Amino acid sequence: MIGVGDFFLINFIGMKNTIAERIADFIKNFPPFDQLSKEDLYAVAKVVTITYLEKDKMVYAVGDALHDKFYMIHKGAIALTKEINAKLETVDRFDEGDVFGLRPLFAKENYATNAVTEEESILYGIPLATFKPLITHNRAVVDFLIESFASNTENPFSKEIHGSLYDNRLEVLANDKELFELQPVRYIKKVITAKANAKIKDIALLMQKHQIGSIILEADNLPIGIVTNVDLRNKVITGEYTIEAEVNQIMSAPVLCYPKGVSISQAQLTMMKHNISHLCVTADGTPNTKIIGVISQNDINVMRGSNPTVLMKAIKRSQSTKQLKHIRKKIMVLLKGFVQQDIPLTQTSKIIFELNDATIKRIIERCIVKMEKQPPVKFAWMSMGSQGRKEQLLHTDQDNAIVFENVEADELENVRAYFLLLAKKVNKRLNEVGFDFCPADIMAKNPKWCLSLDEWKNQFIQWTSNTGDDEILLSSIFFDFDVTFGDANLTNQLSDHIFEITKSNHMFLSKLAASALRSASPLGFFRRFLVEQDGEYKDFFDIKKRAIMPIVDAGRLFALSNQIKNINNTAERFEKMAELFPENKELYLSCSYTSKALLKFRTKHGLLHNDNGRFIELAALNKEEKMKLKRCFNTIAQIQESIKLKYNLSNFK
Amino acid sequence: MMGWNFNKKTYPEYWEAYLHHFEKKEKKTLDSSRFVALDCETTGFNFYIDRILSIGAVSISKNEIAVAESFEIYLKQSHFNPDSVHIHGILQHGMIAKFSEEDALKQFLIYIEDAVLIAHHASFDIKMINAALNRMGLPNLKNKVIDTMNLYANTRIKSNFIDKSAHYSLDDIAEAYAINLMDRHTAPGDALIAALIFLKTTALLKKSKSFKLEHYFLKSTRF
Asked: Where is the Exonuclease domain positioned along the sequence (chain B) (predicted)?
């Protein structure tokens, strides 16, 4: 009889292992595996285990017995956390290509940190039994691993990051302010330099090409001067020098140099003291050795991640999806700060909206470049749902669509094909950055939602003239669109069209009104919170379905029936209503307040639990919060009453 | 020739050994059972004419895929369909070690034991394997089978305006889940993608109290 053992023998001798080969192809790009021989790589790849973990799952916890393997991140991100002064702090973060959980390689004591997935992740487990014997004689590998294990401030960043000019400067996320100041500053390693006798004009072109504000001038790799856009402004635009002059006429020299390892606070103090925005990093910290990098004020600000202007700049300059993903994480840090400091929600949402909007714009811009062909006709990228209403604070799903100019029938499908391909690229990258795919496929890459202007108009006519529940649902998603990119003329025509066809369409409006009542006031009999009855969120309160949607639906209904154009934001819609109907001012203003309060509530809880904030654990609310929520619910009940009266829906249950 | 029982067919030893694994009759659960995600590359879609070119499979236990326990085998071909070469890239006389249909299936049975089988559009792969077994005079596979398409479809929002009968290709799902598309259309590559989809969808689905693994077992009449 043939046993399993025999089978593996066969497998070992005669068979090909395609999966192991692919794993070897992946891991060989990242340290320390880049130091292994081909045979060793394959030997490791053959015994890898693959695990999938959802977001917020523990790989291991403090005090757990050591695993018989360490890990490499194939996809996703991991945070190492531990309790410092009774507060859970993140001590390190890793992402794709990084190794972590190295303790079993070097120590015998149980794990000293928690490893938690920050996003859903696919991990490779590298068994020690195979790995350890391979590296005992490989100094480079051992050194790298010891260094990574010993240091919690420095990520063992991947090769890819080593290699590129912009990538490495967004890595550090400040967690602890004090510690942060003392961290060594990350510097740009691939420095753009020029010769001192270059023409000023060429320097300006170089700056434009790389979107940077300063260039170091070198001779034999030694820094001899630096020129910044301030020099251009003060010495060239003023007419003092012509653009044909040599740059050494206007450069600053000598250059302030530092060795690598200078702390963030030291770099900042030097910059403040000398009123400059750039430092040069050289091998020994003097201008007499080779340039190895440059530190800029801007990069330090981005590392701090607390300034919307800097983040905006970083978005506009970003050169990869990975960078945008890091920036998005900082946007979340910023949002957390706003909420903690109780900054008014109106301002908070405007800033976060602008940053999200810029992120999406940047992605679309980059994807058009990747298409290697300009769009065949004018188009607009529409964001719908919460982003369209400027109410998207946390990471939620992406809802979007494309409208393009009308074209001849025989060209229609060609034109659509271009936009579908573009949308596919954009949707994919939005997902990578943190806007999850829409589970209902309301995305521009879906051919149903990538239409010409006339097709959209017909679609809307269909929904509003032959209206069932699905059509109401679709209208309520699609009518709240906002142009994110492209030609606003197209979207304006679409808005006009919507108002046109709904104007005296009482049938449609009353159906819309009925649907705004579909979730009854969230307070049940005996004025208790209605909670979910089943599933993962049993006994949680669904703030989106039971509170936010009713108020958003009401806002949309009033906007459509009163021809309030170009206002998508629910709070602003009600403010407009208060203006139009002063006799009901009080109710409308309290609706406006309620919509903001609910959004803030959701945001706060989402940040607390690192999710989309939709489900709220009632037990975790304090009395004041419960009161506040109940007041919001009262307003919802009132506005629902008024809808019932207005649309004669008194029998509606 | 006394006592020869014509009604009871005798099967080769490896088939009896395979059947032996099913005597345990243990309840299959996500955390305790072994799963094998598999994919067959074939010369075409006809169960009678077309043949299996290769089988790739990975084994999952305790939510972990062990690469060391993956399975990959290439079959000698009697039937050759030049039309499908551009998809799977397997030529009739390639360089890889190849096995006869019987030897390949024998090894496959030893490998799968009583594991729950997982594949995308599983009924196709299982029917192909059953057709091969039947040619060898053997009955159909005894394993429980799960189709990743059903798992995925159940994670989607249930709404009227999403086509309920929509079919999701492996490419669709891999894209939605941002699973690397490299090595598509090789049996082991597709098996690995199916395994990842299995891990991801079950992680989502098992959160519901009403989740039962056996709801997803395909009826044996489908093969």
From this structure: 34-207
Closest CA to A465 of A422, A509, A495, A407: A509
Q: What b/e string do you get for A288-317 counting C-beta neighbours within 10 Å, with b at 16 or more?
A: eeebbbbbbbbbbbbbbbeeeebbbbbbeb
- Note the pLDDT tens digit of each residue in A88-126: 877 777 888 889 998 888 777 888 889 999 888 899 999
Nearest by CB to residue A122, choosing from B110, B182, B196, is B196
Cβ A7–B111 below 8 Å, yes or no? yes
**Homologous superfamily of domain range A308-502:** Beta Polymerase, domain 2 (3.30.460.10)
Q: Identify all chain B residues contacting A431, using CB atoms and an 8 Å cutoff.
A: 178
Q: What is the CATH number of the domain that holds B144?
A: 3.30.420.10
**What architecture does CATH give domain A181-304?**
Roll (3.10)
Give me the residues of B, 62-81, that contact A with CB < 8 A. Answer: 63-68, 70-74
ipTM more than 0.90? no
A129 Cβ under 8 Å from any chain B Cβ: no
Q: Are A78 and A57 in contact (CB under 8 A)?
A: no
Segment B95-119 mean pLDDT: 89
What pLDDT sits at residue A7? 44
B57 in A contact zone (CB under 8 Å): no
**Among B162, B149, B33, CA closest to A473:** B162
The SS3 call for residue B73 is: strand
**Is residue B68 over pLDDT 70?**
yes
Tell me what pLDDT residue A558 has.
93
Q: Which of A87-96, A285-294, A367-376, A437-446 has the lowest mean pLDDT?
A: A87-96
R_g (Cα) of chain B, nearest Å: 18
Please answer yes or no on whether A49 and B66 come within 8 Å at the CB atom: yes
Please give the structure tokens belonging to residue A359. 């992120």
Where are the domains positioned within chain A? 18-163, 181-304, 308-502, 513-646
* Interfacial B residues in 114-153 facing A (CB < 8 Å): none
Determine contact: A431 vs chain B, CB below 8 A. yes
Range of the domain at B172: 28-218
**Is residue A159 pLDDT above 70, yes or no?**
no
- Look at A338-352, B96-110, B135-149 and tell me which has the smallest mean pLDDT: A338-352
Question: Which residues of A are less than 8 Å from B72 in CB distance?
Answer: 15-19
Rounded to an integer, what is the distance from CA A367 to the centroid of its chain?
Answer: 17
Q: Residue A529: what pLDDT?
A: 59
Of B96, B110, B157, the CB nearest to A440: B157
